[in-house]
User: Fold these one by one.
Assistant:
Number 1:
Amino acid sequence: MMDLFILGIAEIFQWRILLIILVGVIVGILAGLIPGFTVAMAIVLTLPLTFGMDPVSGVAAMVGVFVGGMSGGLITAALLGIPGTPSSIATTFDAYPMAQKGEPGKALSIGIWASFLSSIISFILLVSIAPQISKFALMMGPWEMFSLIVVSLTIIASVTGDSIIKGLIAGLFGILIATVGADPISGISRFSFDLQTLRAGIPFLVVLIGMFAISRLLVSLERKELDKDDAKRAEEKLKDVQFVLRPIHTMLIVLKKPWTLLGSSSIGAIIGAIPGAGGSIANIVAYDQAKKWSKNPEKFGTGCEEGVIASEAGNNSTVGGDLIPTVALGIPGSAVTAVLLSALMVHGITPGPLLIVNEPNIVGGIFFAFLVASFWMLITQFLGMRYFMKVTQVPVQVLVPVILVLCVIGTFVLNNRFTDLYILIVMGFIGYLFTKYNFSLAPAIIGVILGPIAEVNLRRAVMADPEWTLFLTRPISLTFLILAVLSIVFTAWQNYRTNYRLKKNIS
Amino acid sequence: MGEILIGVALIALGAVIYLQSNDFPALNEVHLDAGSFPKLIAGLLILLSLLLIIKQGLALMKSQSTGERQGAGERVRDFYKEYKLVILTLLVFFVYIFLMQFIGFVVSTIVFIIFTGLLVGSRAKKDIMVITIVSVAVTLGTYFFFENFLNVRFPSGIFF
């Protein structure tokens, strides 16, 4: 435990790396701000830039983007009532009314402090829980690893998208994408259909860039999205808001509500640790719970301080929570941490329960990059707020082609292979169809990254002992499988119940 | 309707994967060979896609009896209006990638950014200026950054 800290501090506290994290945070905040630009997109596009760096700097840069992005949505949410990212939907409930009442500066700075303090809380949770989980995970054999992946995928499928069937289909599709290319155990070439392009497999990153960046851009080109965007911009120009940020005063306000802060941060961290669930769910749940536990719930929605704290604490603490399974088990909780893991893989580092033992400097580096990024986020938000607001004006016609080109470069840089670009365009189109028909992309992405690991563990398990009932008789494995079944049954039941209620209401 | 088509496509994909999985050279693995895992996944995918088709089919049948009908021509026109830019941008993007091998990264990228920018947004004089400057700056900036710092060789094509 101690050596993790010492190694982490030694890795991160160097001028060069501190600077890299700062740049990452600024990029993240801008990504959170610009409509049509998501945090996942920013992370995906940062990755190629980090290939030339050592693994710790690369990962540090990405953690910076992640932390910055989570807090970037706050600005538009508070001033315009438009969430810059889905993670700040609940922020609009109270921060916007507060700004309307003539206190935009207060809304913003309370949000910044809540983001910062909740990051610190989730940092503490991360460093105390992750090593314990990975110690526990070291006792797991291939049976348990396989069942763990099964449960992760079913949970992702059930928390995202509009139906569990679609979520599971997306996950299976992702796993199938990953089976193209060489078989992970015997090296036999599979499903290349005699195409040179497919013989080496479909690179994970190309799938990610296609599905998360290209498909998102295509959505923003639909007529009604363009019209919505025009309307937003017209509105935005009207609002040249004047505000004063009072850092010390608002810090005290936030600290006077310790229970809201602690509660929302814990909720955020727990939700962040569940695969597939992230800031977009956490901020709403945290807000809802804070309202339930509050002494004066009727004030929520009218611009009350607790509401802003709950939402912003809820979304920022997911970062720490998300990193727990990523670091301890090698199972990414979101697209963002999936990119983080693939960055490690590019450098030849295998994520998994052994990561903390084998690469303590990298794990320590991730921990402290997160801490440093939170401080940078606080400082840059307070100092740079005024300048950040100007950037929301980047027009779509510049944004779309430039990001498309960045996608092409990112794909090309990965393997220097021209044919990957065709895979990119196909994946972008598939991702677009998926979003059009409400298949969520997260299970597909996590399926691509976990599929090969599941296969290796399944085959190892059967090689070690051909008795397949071991999956059901080993207690930990059984627990995971039961959880998987429960998550499916529970979601199906919940869907049924809401449908039933809807019908009842109509009649 | 779209969901059903996707379901059918996924069943076809699952079937292809399943059938292909039988032809892998067998090594001396007794229990699970290279084809077993893909077969399992393909099987599950087919099963779930069938479920999806049934579910959507039932919903569709219910809604069709109540929903009002629109002329086919009108529907095509609405569709085109809504998705015009998506389709055109995809086409232009494909042409860009295809041509890059022949005319090189720098030239094709500059042309692509300007062309797509004008396709998507306004064609006022000021905007043309802006997009031209952006395209040249972005292209040359990334080109020199990646060539010099990361030693990436972009396709150079016939120009340089």
Number 2:
Amino acid sequence: MDGIHDMGGMHGFGKVEPEPNEPVFHAAWEGHCFALNRAMGYTGIWTIDQTRAGIEALPPDVYLSSSYYKKWALRLENLVVERGLADADEIKAGHALRPGKALKRKLSAADVPNSLTRGSFARPARAPARFAPGDRVRTKNIHPATHTRLPRYARGRTGVVEALRGCHVFPDTAALGKGEDPQWLYTVLFEGCELWGDSAEPTLKVSIEAFEPYLEPA
Amino acid sequence: MAHDHDDDRHEHGSELPEMQLRVRALETVLAEKGYIDPAAIDVIIEAYETKVGPHNGARVVAKAWSDPAFKRALLEDASKAVVALGLMNRIGDHLIAVENTPKLHNMIVCTLCSCYPWEVLGLPPVWYKAAPYRSRAVNDPRGVLADFGVKLPAETGIRVWDSTAETRFIVLPMRPSGTEGWSEEKLASLVTRDSMIGTGLPKNPKEVG
């Protein structure tokens, strides 16, 4: 999706403003919002790619004007309603008005320590990897209206495969709820001038993590 | 409801009371529907506020500075090496350590969202998730470093890693000179969060004595 979330290389956002001694959460609701997202993710009702697509689906003005955890809260409300887990009138009332659905699992306090670890996204390969480290590749000029992890600034660009990272769940398919569709994942390295032209910082190199369907031989 | 949201405060301005009420409403609905256990919510918050954080990454870096065999293992397969170190209960797959040298400075970003190595660095700071860093890291990394008060030699190459998949990156900064014979614990006190993202350098040894 060519959305506002795809920010690499955009101008006009100003300086980076580090906050000294920044707290983990700036308000108690941020911690609750974060933890609710984690606990609902644990139920298995949606995948990480579907949650990313949920953030990307926020209108651009809302995306830009909302704090990070506000985006997470809006996304969670939307997903809960879209999946029929609760209705908008219940969220508005702040109470369940109808019984809940049965979900696969529920996170207990005792299970939290083990749930903090990320799962593995590696999956058995269905075919040999098409590219090897050292190969020159070109990223495809694709513009899907749905979730993708190929950023705009790196589309239609030529780079070199630096590493093969294994075969992973393919976000573009998984975000659509169409299964994991595992694909080979590569680190692809670009010269700064390939991405930004003559104005590029001369010593700059940028890599992306690129799934095989994003790539063609160059 | 068992949770105390009363300490909500800080600079989110007028947005805050609305969000406090909104998140509380959502939590109540999800709990009453039977999807979440509020006790688990509290344990998650506590874990990320107290247990998971950049102190873990600092221990990994200090170990790599002290133990060449560990450093090799870390650069070969960081997930495996960090698990073997036994600092953390468990660690997810796909962690990759990238080494700074006098010729090369590494910087980590996620231009598309906020991907970050939570288990070794904790939750990302606001700036990491915000538009200025995500937009500029890939085309103006020296400008970004200047925002952090860091100036690298012009001949040092800059390599930016955009975290566009489930691989996660941690920078292995250069060990400061003047730290010969330091214990791992003392070395770890030099390792800042930003030095492991690539937007900062380790502290000057004189700062920690």
Number 3:
Amino acid sequence: MNLRKNVRFRAATFFLIALPVVFSHRAGAQDIVSKALQDELSRTVGQLQMQSTQKPYFVAYRADDVDDTKISASLGSLTEEVPSHRRMLGVELRVGDYKLDNSNFFSMRNMAAVGARMAQSVSEAPLDDDYSEIRRRLWLATDAEYKSAIEDYSGKKAALEQRKQAEDAQSFSKEPTVHITEAPPPVKVDLPALERLARDLSAVFKQMPEVYTSSVEIECRNSYTRYVNSEGTSFARGQSNTHLAVTAETQSSDGLPISETFDVYRRSATSLPSESELLERARQMGARIAKVRDASYVERYNGPLLFEEDAAGEIFAQIFAPALVAVPPPVSDDPRFEMFFDQFASQLTGGSLLQKIGGRVLPDFLDITENPQQESYKGAALPIAAKIDDDGVMTRSTKLVEKGTLKTLLTTRGPAPPLEHSTGSRRGWGPAPTTLTLEAEKTMTRDEMRQELLRRVKQRGLGYGIVVRSVGGGGLTGMFRMLAAMATSPGSMATNSLTEVYKLFPDGHEEAIRGADLSGMTTASFRDIVAAGNQPVLFNAQFIPKFNALFTMGLAGAPDLPVVSYIVPSLLFEEGTLVRSAAPRPNPPATKSPLAAR
Amino acid sequence: MTNISVVVRVAALFFLLASHSAAQQAAAPDHLLAVMTGELQRSLASLKKTETPPYFLSYQLTDNRSVNVTSSFGALTDSNERHTRLLDVDLRVGDPLLDNTHPLRQAAFSMSDLTDRFQSAKIPLEDDPDALRAALWYITDQKYKRAVERLQQAKANVTVKVEAEDKSGDFSQEPSETYSEPIATFSFDQKAWETRVRRYTSPFKNHPDILEASAQVIGEIETRRYVNSDGSSIRISSPFYRIIISASIKDDDGMELPLHQTYMSFREDGLPNDATVLKDVNLMVTNLLALRKAPLADAYTGPAILSGRASSVFFHEIFGHRIEGQRQKNEDEAQTFKKKVNQSVLPDFLSVYSDPTLARTANTDLVGYYLYDDEGVKARRVTVVEDGVLKNFLTSRSPIEGFPHSNGHGRRQQGYQSTARQANLVVVSKKQVPRAELKKMLIEQVKAANKPYGLFFDDIEGGFTFTQRVLPNAFNVRPTVVFRVYPDGREELVRGVDLIGTPLIAFSKIVAADDDTEVFNGMCGAESGWVPVSAIAPGLLISQIETQRKEKSQERLPILPPPTSGN
């Protein structure tokens, strides 16, 4: 009880300091949406029970108001402009008790129900603050959730009764109750300014006929989440972010597809880098991929790899960070599903780090800290910071790796044994970091890193070393990238087509190479880090959960991939493998671009 | 026949107006069409130098602006505006006898279009000539490479498979067409419609048993620009307004009972006023509540009346789909009518024609209306059945045996390959009796067949049919409002009926038609995607139909009563 009070108190003070104006503005009057959520919650908790079955022991409702503006342009002309405003309602309902409930169960006998469940827990709500219609929608969604929860709960209990070993995992962790009320973000998007920016940036490629296709995408999103649950937690949280992506694609004369994307994440469109800076980046990227067309191949390289600046953040984000979350293994009425799941998950992720807690996962001069409340880095605002997670749990700073040893993993209220509590890390579908910092005790300057690479190259008797400056995602974003990452063949890790790679020769000169894939890199490879730079770089990217995390989808109001900030220094790996890309090589265009013809 | 002549006169009037305004603005040149023509010629000229030069190339740029407002139980659920441009490129290599579009016999579904990661050029929404040129170039080049590959597959397929029964080629020669309409004016007051659409679903709020209720108002304007290597250049522009209201109630046994009400017009002021819509909404409420109490129908066979709307869907499904050209050619199809030209296929008092150029019947705009099809061929009236005798099929530029030319029915949804599709299918009866007389005839049939009752299908939400050989050639028409008609003339609403059957038997049982011709405007989905269609038919008496029980949900009614402000 004491702890609970304490947390609440801290939350309230924090709020007062951060947003005093808003507090006085909103004090007193409860808004219609929150009232509808609260009133229907009270009715559900008090009355919902089907004859001879259990009442729900936990119910949570949330409403997400999302204002989204998406603008795309190509060659100086808009190609898409989609403003959208929507409100989604989410229902999370649990039957049973904290020890054992209906969650995390997959019936192989009733596969259709699994899909139906995912659809029914989220429903579209009116844009109007219409008290009775919001309650009506919640009523129907709750009813559907309750009925399937009862089926799942009895299915799960029956499945566990058929087993010798007892299920020692807790279904749902108990966490302190919290109240936080933030103001909605100011919904203001300067559409003409964004249109102009998209046009101007994309027009850069008009002068580059050797770039075959290109696009600029800007997405501005403001969301406001209201949440209430039957334990007494409630919060209202505003978040806003802006994403800008510039992509260019071409092919070399032998057909190799070459593409590059740069992404910028900010809290708002007004904090984007200046137009001149963005134009310069777009120009440089276009020039770079045009140049890479004529670069040479590397057949195979085994040796030290230096990931410089953003590339270090990218490789950390793509391979290591997704393993820093823990999700409980699902229970199924068919043990083969669980075995298959376990094998599949370990093949895809190179084994769960859950079993590594207490073990060494990095060299002893490296630490990893997650801090969702961090607002800025070196004076620049981070794209996202949150005081409360999507389970209604206060976020906190968590030391994940200390002197190379794994201390814990990020969890939601559905923890994976031996972890028992939430780290306040539910972001949409499941656990995800917000701001991860990889910190090194001993560091090197950029030049020292390169010297160290060359020293090792010489020691190994190699002619050159490899410097990776951009890893890239193959020009795919969001869902596609996630599917691509998940669909890699079992038995091997995803190969990453690297975007910007150089040979570094002993005399210090560099040569760009093309069509290089990074092969066989796993979380274990990170133990081979031998040096870290002294200038950590802030790199922001969408978080792509590993396959197993997808099965924990709970109350996901906004099923978008969360944006994560990575603060990571350049990293030198003792060993890594590059292979020549085996990607298909379609014929280059049979005709000349009309932009070149003139 | 009198009904139809009214229709024709109205349509003529409409065209007169349209061509009048076209003449006024014909002078303004279309920059996008010029860019399309220029790039088409440039691409053709450079591809001519390749080993496999294209023999035909066309571009169709479809510009669509739409506004959509939606409400549910009196609250606004969506209000958005969209602007899209889609490009369809038809590129043919080989020759008209055998080209890359030749159907591969017994080939599984092709994934090649989906896996091509380099077809991502986006179409500019603005009129920047360079951006459009670059997109046209890139997509044409991608299309060309796939076409060359596809031609080789087609040639191999022809070699290894048995000789095709229908030896007509892949592409017909058609005259080039030049036509330009002014860009239509589009008016849609989004804010005003938000208020109106809320009003349309408010009445449902008073009825807690109604679980779903939504109203959607869509205003859109579509401008299609088409150029091809035959020299055609076409610009068509038309607005389109719709109101769609749907509501459903759930019975104690889980059955969901939906009702729909739709209105469409080519003019915003052609939509009904609020009083009319609300009157229909209140009628929907009454009908839904009545359906909730209506007895569940059992499987039935016996005589029935189909209202004009029900007959329209019935004809669209069981007849219309079977006269689409490619179904006479494709050997996976059952080809019900292939060998029936100049033979009797319907009762001799019935005639059927397809007329895409009909914009309006006496009181309803027809969504199947167009002047040029998606292959740049001029639309025209086609007499399909005259006095019961089959005369013609609906054809695209894919020729079929005995019908070497297109009659302007090549249609598609953007992104699909055009095939022959229905547009406005009109069923006309020489013999017409008043509805009351038709009901008397039904009762006579019921008595003669010694049945307890006959059925009257009043309203309908759609239907489907199978035309291929792999499955039985059945149809299912999905009625929403059905009455039992007892020998004493009493009518009783029932629920849970699907009208099923097979085509040839169904046609042979049509006995009579009434004088109440009705229109069904809807969207039709088939191999070339979704296209808007209309079907127009009188009410029909059928001596024997078959019904089966409708599929139903197994979900119980909600456990708690609906929330009200009281609890």
Number 4:
Amino acid sequence: MIPGEPLIRWDWIASHTDELALRLVEHVELTVIAVSVGLIVAFALSLLILRLPRLEAPVTWVTGTLYTIPSLALFALLIPYTGLTIVTAEIGLVSYTLLILIRNIVHGIRSVPADVREAAIGMGYTPRQMLRHIELPLALAVIIAGVRIATISTIGLVTVTALIGQGGFGYLILIGIQRFFSTELIAGAFLSVALAIAADGLLVLVQRRLTPWAHVV
Amino acid sequence: MTLFVDVVKWFFDPAHYQGADAVQTRVVEHLELSGAALIAGALIAVPIGLALGHTGRFAFLAVNVANIGRAIPSLALIALGLPVAFALQLGLGFWPTLFALVPLAIPPILTNTYVAVRGVSRDSVEAARGMGFSELGLLGRVELPLALPIILSGTRTAAVNVVATATLGALVAGGGLGRYIVDGLALQEYDRLFAGAMLVALLAIVVEIAFGKLERIAVSPGIQRESAAF
């Protein structure tokens, strides 16, 4: 970008490992909070939908609309209220996880075979026990598939939060753009993608460990 | 509440409908950029998807390219468009954003085209072969029309993503509605920021709904009758 400047200056990377580590921690923190809170909210809403199916359409509509709103716009709409804070970032990031997570949780629990359910009822399971010991374990593979998609998208979206003063690796990208410094920009982009791939791999391992009976990855 | 009043005032201020920063100019810029990226993306993705779907080769690649696309952060794409545009001496603004948006548009269209063509019932394909369709005729007159609704559904996903990410083009001195958000942030003018965000959100929702309509219209008349009969 600057004439005579190499695309990647390895010496800059070597001398900035501390900062890269700091951005990694930030990025992971923002992602873990978003996906965890998203999972809790999505779980509560999913149980509500399973109990009251007429809520499914309105919840899908609201989460679908949230999902459609571009991330920068959603953050911008929140700034007058919650400022340039981690709260603004997390409200946006959590909103984007809901559509995918709710769809997978509801679909996963609904696809538990009817005869399995009947067998459980016949064995005297209460609805709570059924959810905990029958439905959730059987739905786990589908739920984790949703968590994988939500995690990958969140890791990508975290980079946008650099514009509201957060950002993890996104901060490196933004500074790289502002200073026309390709090394920092490429390092930020590369590390963000690498983190997404690593997180996805980790979740695949978690899924295999939790659902050893499911051969489909 | 004062913010709400400020934003309403912003929308009614005639100054915001004049000159280079006018609302209508920014909307047109946004749509031009998104449209160009979507058309370029579709021109690349649809033929590849059709070819892979028709032959059934590289299934793993065709199905997974959408997931890989999701992992690449849009901010990084915008950033990486910059060195490409500089290398080609195309400057800031439109081109780096376009270079970022095209790869964003390709994955959902490619994956959906592949899946849609693979999903065309083997009976229809065999019947067409029996009637003496050439491979190209089969692709163009049987597989493509039957696959069209799912291809358009992928195009809708791509369109919404592209419209959303075109906002970030303002970071690399591009036009479009992102200008209001980026400038509003920089100048701490919350009315401009909020108005811009509302316009972007509205545009994305309108695009989503419009493509949804298009999808329903695109269902082949034969299938429409068939599903109506059941």
